[in-house]
């Protein structure tokens, strides 16, 4: 049996305890669950840092492009100016819902579960890869689907815990 204590991050209140047979950690590359379970990641950070801007522009609705630019570390960034520079021009940006800086990581856990096989890791909690395209989400979804199938088979008696 696994016990997890949950709380609302915005208020640090409303603590709730959940008990279950298994806990699947899908809490990202900086996984608290992985760290608490003592599972180490092996691999390295790449020296490159990236800046991601998601924006909406009705004016550019018909135009698709991909741009790259270099930004020195510590640069204060205006996401709209980055978009204008990379796409070579000014146009109306209706919204910038997401913008973030990130460092490329290539790492994987030493093992995908605790020795008890009760805490299992998936997605970025288990492996960090280049975020281009699906931002790692594709492998996270595949991990969750795979673990779901394995847990269902185990629950129905089709195999032993070696499936995990």
From TrEMBL:
Record domain FAD-binding: where: 12-61, 95-164
Cofactors: FAD
Alphabetical list of Pfam families matching this protein: FAD_binding_3 (PF01494)
Protein name: FAD-binding domain-containing protein
Entries under PANTHER family matching the protein: BINDING MONOOXYGENASE, PUTATIVE (JCVI)-RELATED, TRK SYSTEM POTASSIUM UPTAKE PROTEIN
UniProt organism field: Aspergillus chevalieri (Eurotium chevalieri)
Keyword Flavoprotein on entry: yes
GO MF, one annotated term: oxidoreductase activity, acting on paired donors, with incorporation or reduction of molecular oxygen, NAD(P)H as one donor, and incorporation of one atom of oxygen
Coiled coil: none
Keywords: FAD, Flavoprotein, Oxidoreductase
Keyword Flavoprotein belongs to the record: yes
Cited InterPro entries: FAD-bd, FAD/NAD-bd_sf, RIFMO-like
């Amino acid at each position: 049996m696994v016990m997890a204590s949950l709380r609302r991050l915005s208020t640090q209140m409303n603590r709730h305890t959940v008990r279950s047979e298994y806990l699947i950690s899908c809490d990202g590359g900086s996984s608290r669950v992985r760290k608490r379970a003592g599972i180490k990641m092996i691999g390295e950070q790449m020296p490159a840092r990236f800046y991601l801007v998601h924006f909406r522009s009705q004016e550019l609705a018909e135009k698709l492009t991909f741009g790259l630019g270099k930004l020195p570390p510590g640069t204060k960034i205006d996401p709209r100016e980055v978009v204008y520079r990379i796409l070579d021009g000014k146009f109306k940006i209706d919204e910038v819902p997401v913008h973030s800086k990130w460092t490329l990581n290539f790492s994987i856990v030493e093992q995908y579960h605790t020795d008890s096989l009760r805490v299992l890791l998936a997605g970025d909690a288990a492996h960090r890869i280049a975020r281009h395209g699906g931002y790692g989400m594709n492998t996270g979804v595949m991990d969750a689907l795979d673990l779901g199938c394995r847990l269902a088979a185990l629950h129905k008696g089709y195999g032993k815990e070696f499936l995990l």
